[in-house]
Structure formats: structure tokens, C-alpha cells
Amino acid sequence: MRKYILISMVLLVLQYNPANAQFSGNSLVEYQLGNIPETDPKDASTIYGQFNLNYRWKSLKASTRIENFYSTVPERSQYTQFTQYSLNFTKKGFKVKAGNFYETLGKGLLYRGFEIKNSILEDQVYRVRRSFFRDTRGIFGGYSNKDISIKILHGNSLSTELPPTFDDNRVDQATASEIKVRIKNQRVGAIYLYNDSPAEKAQYMSFSLEGDITQNLGYYGEYAHRVDGQKFFGHEKEDGYGGYFNLNYATSGFGASVEIKDYHNLFIGSGISDPPTLVKEHYYRLLNRSTHVTNLVDERGFQVEAFFVPRENQLLTFNTSKAINQFGDTKFVFNEYFLEWSIELKDERQLKVFGDYSSDNLLLEKNRYATGIYYTQGMAKNWSFSIESEAQQIEREFSEKENLYNVYMGFIVNKTTKFSGAFIWEFTTDPVVADLQQTEKIEESRHYLSVAFTYKPNRKNTFSLFAGNRRGGPACTSGICYEVLDFKGVELHWAMKL
Amino acid sequence: MKYFILLFFVVSIIEVKAQHPDIELKTLDQQWVSIDGLKGETLTVVDFWATWCKPCVTALPKLAEIHREFQEQGVEFIGINTDGPRNIAKVKPLVKTLGINYPILLDTDNELVNEYNVTAFPTLFIFDRKGELAFTHEGFVKGDEKIIREEISKLLESL
């Protein structure tokens, strides 16, 4: 299959007039000198590279991705691999994809593919670096017009837990179809999924309804249930099901969305399902790290987000969410309240202020308070500077109650997006993070100091340099949460576009 | 490693030709449209953004302002929202609240993102009336609105 696609791609390149064809592509190279703090060797040297090359001729497109990773530490597996290759055909609503592709069915309750662009993931166990995506390798066919859309797919989904050095990292073989039909202003949808994984074979179905009630009021509802040996509306302990409902209202100056979830035994295969989390994905550093990760064994809850323009050049954002996990007789509750005020001031100044309260008793964090101020000032000749500050207090109750603090400060200078220089300081008294397992003494606090520069000499190239100490932990980007490792050292990143 | 070097070589010598794919995406009102059907008489500005991306959200009202300034000169703006299932419910409320008056298309499966080789958010492209790529801008910080405004004026003058 892979060879066939590569040969087809070469033939396409050679056969057709380049005036009708288009190449596109990009590459990414990242060199690191350093390691997880206090981990030997401290001066480990690694390089990760990624090339993406696409060739389009009219409705046909051939693509390939090659990744490689080398390390001076022999235990960390090294590789050079074609990790993606595909042939796509798109014309007048018809789509056919062969090879690697991303596809999400419905709102992802049963099946979701994703890629976090330009991301490099390194896991704690294998310490192998790779791009972060979950795709399907197989075949896809689809058609859509204003009244109907149909999708059919068959293939093996990538397990994001395993690095490319594992031969068997596509253990889930999914066969699925989705149909959506428009009836006036409403759309009715149905999904069927059959997943064959080493653990079990399972069949699921889902039904959805979406549309506009009025010009300003819209909704989406989806209900999914395992159907092999289970009743579609059954809610027994062993049943696998999920429900998601969203209502959104939008008018000039005010908008809000209300979402409700109820997921039970919805972790399918090695994790091919990824329903909406209904927890705010913060772009503030400390809040992004304090996220709640959805547990598909059992979770129900809601999220409300509202936007309001009180005056011109101002925006208020309010968010509240709640998630309840019932594991046997034990109930865990996460809830959060967030308010942000964003103001465009006179003389090229911008201010963002936020306050946040949350609690997560699964993490034994009874009360979490956070606040922050981001100030940006424009200057002459397209220069600007930003001062970013965030502080967080967490009351954690393990064997005894303790108060811990996290602080983030950033000073950033920009000349448009062509150049940026940043000085970053983070501080924590969290013993889980501050106390290094590799040392004998008990560290009660930790500082993270770093500098980072980005330079774009032209539209094709971006160079980034990081030096110092970077705090890891949970991170969420593009709706996906993952774990970032601590790093101490120097990192050079070069992204190039064709 | 040899594949890696070969591809690097290929990437560095080949020439890019502009060509637009026939990809249709859903609007916020659940209609299927293609970019070609929305292009401007003189210029088309395409902005790839997401709700979780701070500079993207900062840029939105600025772009709406620029759109209002240049709309009468045949400049059309198109927003390509790339949010996945986690944040998609917030897109319409945010867009309407901010008074964004240009069409927003939903690229949940990153089809157009991959087609336009977008690797960072926000990314803004300006296409001329022939559909040729005339300007690319990645990221958004204070002062970038001036650069985008200047570039549109410059391109309009050259038409």
C-alpha cells in the first residue's frame, strides 16, 4: 500500500505539466541539548525532524510525511520512518482518501482523528520524540451537498500512547459510516461504528439532531450507545453510552453556549473516541496546566460560556463548568468559575485581566484561586512589549491541609511577528513538582528561568531558540490534552515552509 | 536518513504554483460552501483561527475593522475556524458577539489547514483577483493590524 502510493506520487510528479500542478510542504527540525532536570546525562543531545510533502494535480493530491529522531542516549529508540502517506481525490462534494487521513464522526463521541500542528511529543516512558496526531490508515469515501452528507471509512487508528518505533501501534481496526440529512433547518444524523481491537470487538450506534430554532438560537444533540448485546437506551452499570447536548445563543454584543454531557464506559479500544470535554481550554499558562481531564469510564456535567461586549473595544468572557465522576460508591467533583475582561485602551495599549476559582477533589485540591494581568503596549516602528503575570493558590488536602503557590511572569518584546524575545520566570511551592525524585534532599520550591527568541527572516522560515528551565505538566492545545516533560537546556527549532 | 535528506533536497528546489482545491466546508449556518464561491472582486483575505488561540481571538475584532474599511473596494474576508469538538460550540456565540460580519467556515478535520499548508495559528493569506497568493502572515501581535492594512492598500494600488 505504502509503496503503491509513493510510486503513484512519483508518477504524478513526472507525468503532468507543472503549470497545472502544485507542490506544498513544510519541514520541522528541533535540536535539544539537555534533559529532564537532574536526570543523567544532563547534556543529552537529541534531534527530531519532520518533512511533509504534498503534490496536487487538479482534484488529486498525494502526500507523505517522514519523521526521524536521533539521540546520544542509546536507550532512547532512534528511527527514520514514513509515518504518513496518502492519495486524496476531491471533486464536487465527493471525497476519496487512501492511506492516512483524519476524520471525526459526529462530535467525536465514537471516533475522532486529530493533529496538533507543529507539536512534538515526548513521552515519559520511551523518551522518543514524535509529532502528535491520531489518524486512520485505510480508506475513506464521502459525499456532501446542501441536503445530505455521507461518510464511510475503514482503517486502523493510531494509538497515541506508543511511539513510531512500535510496529504494532495501530491495534484498533474501525469500520464506520455516518449519514446526515437536512430536513428544512434541521439535520438528522446517524453513525455506525464497528471496532475490532485485541481486547474486544464492539459495535456502537449514535443518532444526532442539530439545527437552528431561531436565527439566533441553535442546538446540537447526540446520543451514542454500544449495540452488541446492550439495549440502545439501557443505562446499566456495564453499558457503554454517551450523550452530548449543546444550545447556543448569539446576537451582536452577547453570545452564550450551554453544554451538557453524560459519558459512561465510552473509552473505545485504545482510545479512538474523544467526546467534548466541556472544560474550558485556557490560554493562560497556569490555568491551562490546572485542567480537568475527562474520564470516559464515567463522567457527567455541564459547561456554560458567555461573551459580552459592555462597551466598544471590550470583551467579557465568563465560563463555568462542572464534572462529576462516579467510581463505585465514590463521587469526585470538579468545578470552575472563570471571568476575563479584555480591554483595548487608547494609545496602542491592551489589557487582559482574569480571575478563576476551581476545585477538583479527584486531585485532592479543595480550593484553587488564580488571577492574572496581561498588559501590552505598542511602540514606534511596530515594536511592542507585553508584561504577563499569573498567580495561583491551591489548597490541597492529602494527609494534612497545605497551601501551595504557583507564579508565572513573562516579559516579551515583539517587532510585529518577525521577532520576539521573552524572559520567563515561573515559581512553585508544589511539593509534587518542586521535590526532585533524583535528589536526596527535599526541595520545597523551584524556580524556572528561561529566555526564548523567535525570528522570521521571511515567510518561509521561522527560527526559535529556548534556553533555560521549562516547567512541564498537563497541557491542552487544539482541544487535546497531553503531558509535557520538564526540560533544562537549550533548544533550537527551525520550521520551514515550501 | 537517506529519505530524509532526499525529501529535504526536493523541498528546497521545487517551485510552488498556486492552485485552489475544490474543498467545501460548512458555514456557521450549516451551509456547504467553497472558498472560491466567497472570493472578493479584488482581494480575498483568508484567516485561519481557533477559540483556544489567544492571538487569534485578539486579531478577530481588528480583522473585522479592516474588513469594514476595505469591503467597498471589493476585498472579502473569510474566517476558517479550526476548532474541534471541544470548543466548536463557542464559535458562533463568540463570532456574533464580536460583530464579525464576514463568513466563517468550519474546518473541523483540518482539510483546508492541510491544503494551505498552515502550521501555526493564526495564519492569514491574501489572494489577488486571479487567486494567486500575494501575502502570508503568521501569528498576531500588537501592530500587525497596521501591516495587514498596509499590505491590502499596497495590493489594491497595484491592481
Number of domains of chain A: 2
Structural class of chain A comes to mainly beta
Biggest interface pair, residues each? A-B, 103 and 68 residues
Question: Can you identify the CATH superfamily of chain B?
Answer: Glutaredoxin
Low-confidence stretches of chain A are 14-18
Oligomer: heterodimer
Q: Compute the number of strand runs of chain A.
A: 28
**Biggest sheet of chain A, open or closed, and with what strands and sense?**
24 strands, antiparallel, barrel
Largest beta sheet of chain B, briefly?
7 strands, mixed
What is the CATH first-level class name of the largest domain in chain A?
A: Mainly Beta
**Rg of chain A from C-alpha positions?**
24 Å
Shape, per Cα inertia axes of chain A: globular
Figure out the total of helices of chain A.
3
Radius of gyration of chain B in whole Å, from Cα?
16 Å
Please explain how this structure is put together.
Chain A has helices at about 1-15, 285-290, 430-435; strands at about 20-35, 45-55, 60-70, 80-90, 95-100, 115-120, 130-135, 135-145, 150-155, 170-185, 185-195, 200-210, 215-225, 240-250, 255-265, 300-310, 315-325, 330-345, 350-360, 365-380, 385-395, 400-415, 420-430, 445-455, 460-470, 475, 480-485, 485-495. Chain A has about 500 residues and is mainly β. Chain A has two domains: about 70-275, Porin; about 285-305 and about 310-498, Porin (Beta Barrel), CATH 2.40.160. The two termini of chain A are about 25 Å apart. Chain B has a single domain, classed as Glutaredoxin (3-Layer(aba) Sandwich). Helix content of chain B is about 35%, strand content about 20%. Chain B has a seven-stranded mixed β-sheet with strand order 2-1-5-4-3-6-7, covered by helices on one side. In chain B, β4, α3 and β5 form a beta-alpha-beta unit. Chain B is globular, with a radius of gyration of 16 Å. The model of chain B has no long low-confidence stretch (mean pLDDT about 85). The chains are: A mainly beta (about 500), B alpha/beta (about 160). At the A-B interface, β1, β2, β3, β4 and β6 of A face α1, α2, α3, α4 and β7 of B.
